[in-house]
Every structure is written in C-alpha cells, then in structure tokens.
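Example (one chain per record):
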Amino acid sequence: MQNSIPRPECLRFSSDGRTPNSALPVLVYRQLPLQGDLAEAFETLFAAHFWPPRWRSPVYDYHHYHTGAHEALGVARGHARLMLGGERGAEIEVRAGDALVLPAGTGHCQLQASADFLVVGAYPPEQDWDIQRPDERTHDAARARIAETPVPVSDPVTGTQGALVELWR
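Predicted structure:
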C-alpha cells in the first residue's frame, strides 16, 4: 500500500501568542486507498505503524491543542471543515479516507461537519493527549512542554519510511 500513498500536503503554522503550534509541519494525506470499514482500517493502519488508536469521535468544536502528544486523525466517515493552527490559522476540508498528522502544539477545531462525521484518533505510545485551550498566560509553559515531546519513530500512515520520518527529524 505504501507505494500507492501520495505524498502528504505539508502545512506550517507558527505561534500566534496564544496557540503554540510547531516548527514541524502538519501532514495531510488525501484519500488513502483503504478498504472496508474505514474506522477499522485506520485503527489497523495506525496500530501497524506504532500509533495505537485511542478513540472514535468527531473533532472537538473548540480550539485546542496537545502539549504532550503528536496526534493522528483518520477520517472514517463524512466530511468536515477544520481550523488548524489556532484561531487565526487556516481552514481545511477533510472527508472520509483522509488522514492528518498534527505535531504537538498544533491548534485544531471542528468548524462544521456532516452528521455522520467520525474520526479515529491515535498517538505514539506513552504520549498523553492533554487538552489545552489557546491562552497567552499559559503559552510559554506549553511551548516548553511541547519541546520535550519526543518525535515518533514512524509515520502513522506509511511507517518508518514515511514523510514524518523525513520531515520531522
């Protein structure tokens, strides 16, 4: 399957003084060639690349980020408009079959979604997905925690030879 996966889109977001974001790019994989139930397919794919799946749900409808974990999101059903990079970031459209890899600190929020929108969330082992809201008072401390979050050993979509390994190291 790896040879049939296109290179991901790379999106970069810098700190806005409230949302730390990351120097590492967000990776957006479009229309992965998965078969069958996409939630199960994403869970299998992520687990095979050492990113254990942890939940199935839509994306929270408020701006947030994680300081202690990088996050993989696999869109299993429906479609949505997400805001990435914080309150002044960029809107992107996602639909079933797309996957996103968000480096720790990347702001994200669901702006609009179809009624059936479902995402599978996964994280590298031993990383905790604390939920932080954009705030200038906690910004600097959050950046310090993000800087200590280790880079994963593999890309959740393509494994040890993926874009994450190439672009995040």
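Caption: The radius of gyration is 15 Å.
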